[in-house]
Design goal:
106 residues, alpha+beta, four-stranded antiparallel beta sheet, three-stranded antiparallel beta sheet, 2 helices, 40% strand
């Protein structure tokens, strides 16, 4: 759920992410990933960070030209296997450092 808008991002069948505007009762975006999404979180007013089994993606759901999430980088394989119980924590840390590294939050 977006922190100040009535917008929700849902995962369906592991690989599908759909974003809905609950107030307008419409689907904003939908994407089918190539692998299961293990974690997703809003990291700015406009964008969601998505973490799959092997990669990290950013998706500006309000940009009409960005039809699918953009791959930012690959995850380290050892972290994906050894620390699966810490996925939410690791995912937030990875998103944080991605934002700082890229120098923007949109």
């Amino acid at each position: 759920m977006h922190w100040n808008k009535n917008i929700i991002a849902l995962k369906a069948q592991g690989k599908t992410i759909q974003v809905f505007d609950l107030q307008a009762k419409q689907k904003l975006k939908s994407a089918v990933m190539t692998e299961d999404v293990v974690f997703w979180k809003w990291y700015s007013e406009t964008s969601i960070g998505l973490i799959t089994e092997s990669s990290v993606y950013h998706w500006n759901v309000f940009d009409p030209t960005q039809h699918a999430p953009l791959k930012m980088f690959d995850r380290i394989a050892n972290l994906a296997v050894r620390f699966t119980s810490f996925v939410p924590f690791i995912s937030i840390v990875v998103l944080f450092f991605t934002i700082i590294e890229k120098g923007k939050c949109n």
